[in-house]
Amino acid sequence: MKKLLLTVALLALVTPLFAASPDFDLKKVDVSFVSTPEFMTNPPARVVHAQKWMVIEATFDAKPDFTDELDFTYYILFANRLFVGHISHVSIQKGRELHSVAYMSPKAIAQILEGKQPTGSDLANVSVTIGKPGISEPISIKSWKPATGQWWAKMKQEDGFVLNKLQTPFASLSWDYYETLKPASAH
Known about the structure:
Radius of gyration: 21 Å
CATH topology: Immunoglobulin-like
CATH class: Mainly Beta
Mean pLDDT: 85
Number of helices: 2
Number of domains: 1
Order of helices and strands: HEEEHEEEE
């Protein structure tokens, strides 16, 4: 009887080590400020001073062979305000180091900061979640800086400032690097 209890106790301790991991796992969140891309055109385009875009890139792994759709939510605590963006990807193929990206435009940043240049202290944190349509809880969460739980849950959230790649001048760049965006619904 003691051997049986010892075996059961040992299995209870070891089993979680071999439990299945989630199908989707956010690995890292990177934030950078990059200049607006310049393109050669004929006739030449007007030359303007390139402005800085905030770029938030989420790296994740996917275990299923194919997934129809994943929803990424970006929570950006910037200038003491919480900005939220929702980006859906489709036809996600199994792989490691897959990428999703979101942007904040130079004009939005200028509006938020009332014309001042961003500083290191303006960006407090960024968290990204992966969800699936019809499932209310996130499948995976990752933050740019260490954070606990869903820190954004009780904060006032502002929509409309976070853009997907197709809404930016970066749309035609690095096409195969990022997962495919869900097309906008026809109205």
